[in-house]
Specification:
single chain; about 240 residues; alpha+beta; 6-stranded mixed beta barrel; 10 strands; globular
């Protein structure tokens, strides 16, 4: 019994650290309706098309929101120097770096100029960089995503086993480039929202809910807002049961 309790508490602490490592004071807005406690962890990013670019400014202007990271996520084959890997390509804006606590091991992150100019810059996760280039320095090298050339501008610092298709196993490109050249979609996969004050998470969540209901002109939400507490609560229930 002592061993089981110790394992459970250890797992809980590890999961909590991993989730908080994805970003501090984080709200995740997903398209479609996701029921808390019913696969919110495994379902990850919503596949509905109800979150649009015009929703970004609505959320940015809510009191208590410090930054918003709109994202479009797809899987593509990535090719470089004879090596290739199938991985998650995430279209992001410069805000992604702050919202998700990203630090750079080398090079620079996506800039506003890259975003405005539909740039072909790519930021590699540590695992992807190794898979494609081994021990070589990837900065300035070219990779191909869906037959389009991108120049490697930066490498993210290794974060370790965060799961949820974590940043180590991911390639970041400008959101504008993802929408116009890769996915061809004008909708978002998710928005990650950083809240200024941890104690205001519930208030900001409710304000965002009301603002998006009004913007979408619907009575029943066609989106979901999940906080880190929701995810941790679900996992804690699972671990406690175990």
């Amino acid at each position: 019994v002592i061993s089981m309790v110790s394992i459970g508490n250890g797992a809980k602490a590890s999961i909590q650290t991993s989730i908080e490592g994805l970003g501090s004071n984080l709200l995740t807005i997903l398209p479609g309706v996701v029921q808390p406690g019913r696969g919110i962890v495994s379902s990850g990013r919503g596949s509905a098309q109800t979150l649009k670019n015009e929703d970004i400014s609505i959320v940015e202007n809510i009191d208590g929101v410090s930054a918003v990271s709109p994202e479009v996520s797809r899987r593509f084959q990535v090719v470089a120097t004879g090596n290739n890997t199938n991985t998650t390509i995430n279209g992001v804006t410069p805000a992604y770096e702050v919202v998700h606590n990203i630090s750079m091991a080398n090079g620079s992150f996506i800039s506003e100029a890259n975003q405005r100019g539909i740039g072909r810059q790519a930021i590699l996760g540590a695992t992807v960089a190794t898979d494609l280039f081994g021990d070589e320095d990837p900065i300035g090298k070219v990779i191909r995503i869906s037959k389009i050339n991108f120049t490697v501008a930066g490498i993210m610092t290794k974060k370790g086993g965060v799961g949820f298709s974590g940043p180590d196993d991911m390639v970041l490109v400008p959101l504008s480039t993802m929408q116009k050249m890769l996915s061809g979609d004008d909708y978002l996969t998710m928005m990650a929202v950083s809240v200024s004050d941890k104690n205001q998470m519930a208030v900001v969540k409710e304000l965002a809910n009301l603002a998006l209901l009004e913007k979408h002109n619907v009575e029943e939400a066609d989106f979901s807002i999940i906080s880190q507490e929701d995810i941790l609560g679900t996992l804690t229930t699972v671990i406690d049961t175990f």
